[in-house]
Amino acid sequence: MRISRSLLPVIFLSTLAFAQTGSLHGIDVTDLDRKVDPCTDFFEFANGTWRASHPIPATQVRWSKRWQSGETSKDQLKEILDGLQTSKSRAKGSTEQIVGDYYGACMNESRVNARGVEVLKTWFSKIDSVKDTAGLQSVVSELHGIGVTVPFTLSGSPDPHKPSWVLADLSVSGYALPDRDYYLKPDARFKEAREKYVPHVARMFTLAGWDQKTATAAAATVMAFETKFAEAALDKVALRDPSATDHNTTFVQLQAMSPHFDWTAYLKNLGLAQDVDMNVDQPKYLQEFDRQLQQTPLADWKVYLKWQVLNSTADALSAPVVEEHFAFFGKYLRGQSEIKPRWKRCVESTDELLGEALGKKYAEKYFPPEAKARAQEMVRNILAAMRDDILSRPWMSDETKERAMAKIATFNPKVGYPDQWKDYSQVDIRPDAYFEDFLAGRRFVVNDDRQTIGKAADRGRWGMTPPTSNAYYNPLWNEIVFPAGILQPPGFDNSATDAVNYGSIGVVIGHEISHGFDDEGAQYDYLGRLKNWWTDSDLKQFQARGACVADQFDKYFIEPGVHHNGKLVLGESIGDLGGAKVAFLAFQKSLEGKPRSADLDGFSPEQQFFIAWGQWRGDAIRIEEQRVMMQSDPHPIGKYRVNGPLSNLPEFQAAFQCKADSAMVRPADKHCDVW
Ligand SMILES: [Zn+2]
To answer: What's the Rg (C-alpha) of the chain?
Structure first.
């Protein structure tokens, strides 16, 4: 198979990531808590004073310089959006018209409130008019068209055995709580969540105009129905194994799994051929869906679908619905005390549904070509460090190393924004109809994905919008993606030393690269195929090294009785350990052949590197949000993303001269080393 992009150079570039002139700033010393010994609790040392003086804002569930930077992007987007609304060139179908009117309609809260839940009428009537299974099926496919993807989702995904081809992937999405355990586990916190969820569903139905008695009965129906789906679904740890969801399925097999659903009609409604290549993530779930089709009365199905419409579109409805939705999912489940201001929710909605139209304007203004070139160079340097790091591993055979090098050579870094922008000109947006605009945006997103199915993959597509303050690795295309939104100060800062840049955004870059070689990513080969490329003994070594990290994180508690699930956070934790290691190596390499730079504010370049990581990743997180994370988030909390990997790094211990018995130095028999 041919790879559609040129191979990356794997040589080291000797230039600095930043053309540094004038005086550059180092880490922010006012953030440090100097009362804490860096060798005892580095997270507190690096960032304790900042956290003490920057409590989590009422509208946030976590806070750090990194999250603050993400919120700054939203201020910038607001400025752009305010400008678009009053722009002179606003022809129908222009970015100015589409994005400006979408935001304007969202901001017109009095109009949204005046229309109330009337806007749902069309959809509730459609559901009410269902007379039989055929009608139910047709409503399900219509709902999928507006992003109400229950009880399953069908979306485009590269074929894990031939990633240059996009197949239809059928995945699970039948319940509204964050994870199946919320429905099933006896623990007090899940039990409480269930007890609060049912009356929340009832209140939502009353806000939609139902009487109390009907709403209460409906809520019980929803809970029972969603629990059935949760019982049939795999848990989050099982889902981390790509082979657990790898089921290439023919149409005949699909029909055999779920004979009571008319798949011919469904695929036709979606514009897909019957013989489209398909993967069914969880066959057992699909069988349960089929059982529900037979067993559950139509009346209950209708209640369930109405709930899903209401829940899924809640944020686009009038204030009482928005507030009730927030009270349960934001305030109760995640501990966010206040809802974000409307303008920010409207910015987020525009970014979510019209992301590349808005993102193009954002990138033009906030991500100049020089920044892109510098970030690309940093990515190249860190990728080369990963290559050197793998080659230096004594436990890995030459045979496996050679295959790892092939994978390094096909890494595709994407930086800032896509080369090809999506065309939004046909999205019908009106200045006075936010709910319909919201559905139009949803339809665009759904169709934009659907049109990729059953075709050769377009590797230029992005899975995040340019203003997003985040990054990802996609094993199927072996790509690392860094939107412009994360390449912003203080993580990526032209006025900071290389030590600070490598220590913050550099570790993020190293983290995404390391995902290619974490417990999940390592199962994909240089062409993105789910195919083992390890020798047996190397694989055993690698798995044992991973087990060390899983064991380390299993012992990290957030409160008595509640700790990380090492297997759930394993990939992210290997990413952090490898990320810190290879970013540090790249940083060291960038210093070679130059006079050693003087200490800054009393800290050596190496110390600045690690402090930068501690400061950028220094999140304070509400306890409610931490509890949700323990259950459903593969990322550890900030404290352990800092102290976890650094306590395994001899480079950190040397930089701060930590004694062998300090808390930040894991004892020899517990020391973990993967990359
Ligand atoms: Zn990650």
So the answer is: 25
Q: Which two tokens stand for residue 631?
A: 């259950």
3-state secondary structure 241-252: CHHHHCCEECHH
Helix (H, G, I), strand (E, B) or coil at 382: helix
Q: So what's the pLDDT on residue 220?
A: 98
Asked whether residue 13 carries a pLDDT value surpassing 70, the answer given is: no
String of DSSP letters for 321-360: HHHHHIIIIIIIHH---SPPPHHHHHHHHHHHHSHHHHHH
**Rounded-to-integer distance, Cα 439 and Cα 155, Å:** 18
The rounded distance, in Å, linking the Cα atoms of 207 and 211 is 9
Report the candidate in 432, 429, 459, 461 with the shortest Cα–Cα distance to residue 444: 429
What's 631's DSSP letter? Answer: H
Which value, to the nearest 10 degrees, does the dihedral of the CA atoms of residues 502, 633, 176, 249 take?
Answer: 90
CA of 232 from ligand 1 middle (Å) equals: 28
- Distance between CA atoms of 280 and 137, rounded to whole angstroms? 18
How far does the centroid of ligand 1 lie from the alpha carbon of residue 512, in Å? 6
Which residues face 156 on adjacent strands?
A: 168
Structure tokens at 659: 């004694």
- Among 156, 174, 168, which residue's Cα sits nearest to residue 251? 168
pLDDT tens profile 317-346: 999 999 999 999 999 999 999 999 999 999
Positive or negative, the CA dihedral 528, 532, 533, 538 is positive
Q: How far is C-alpha 214 from the geometric centre of its chain's CA atoms?
A: 37
Establish whether the linkage from the previous residue to 151 is cis, with ω within 30° of 0.
Answer: yes
Cβ-contact 23, 547 below 8 angstroms: no
Q: Calculate how far, in angstroms, residue 666's C-alpha sits from the geometric centre of ligand 1.
A: 23
Query: Per-residue DSSP letters for 78-126?
Result: HHHHHHHHT-S---TTSHHHHHHHHHHHHH-HHHHHHHGGGGGHHHHHH
Tokens of 474: 């996609």
How far does the centroid of ligand 1 lie from the alpha carbon of residue 474, in Å?
10
Residue with tokens 């899983």: 550
User: Separation of 580 CA from ligand 1 center, angstroms?
Assistant: 13
C-alpha of residue 475 to centroid of ligand 1, in Å: 12
% of the chain with per-residue pLDDT over 70:
97
- CB 318, CB 113: distance < 8 Å: yes
| Residue 472: other Cβ atoms inside 10 A | 16
Residues in the chain: 675
622, 335 Cβ separation under 8 angstroms: yes
| Predicted confidence (pLDDT) per residue in 471-481, tens digit | 999 999 999 99
The one-letter amino acid at 313: T
pLDDT tens-place string over residues 510-563: 999 999 999 999 999 999 999 999 999 999 999 999 999 999 999 999 999 999
Interval between CA 454 and ligand 1 midpoint (Å)? 29
Please name the residue that has the structure tokens 């400061």.
615
At 22, is the pLDDT very low, low, confident or very high (cuts 50, 70, 90)?
Answer: low
Residues 69 and 562: their CA atoms lie apart, in Å, by 30
How far, in Å, CA of 168 to CA of 187, rounded?
A: 37
User: Backbone phi, then psi, for 673, in 5-degree steps?
Assistant: -150, 110
Span 31-76, pLDDT tens digits? 999 999 999 999 999 999 999 999 999 999 999 999 999 999 999 9
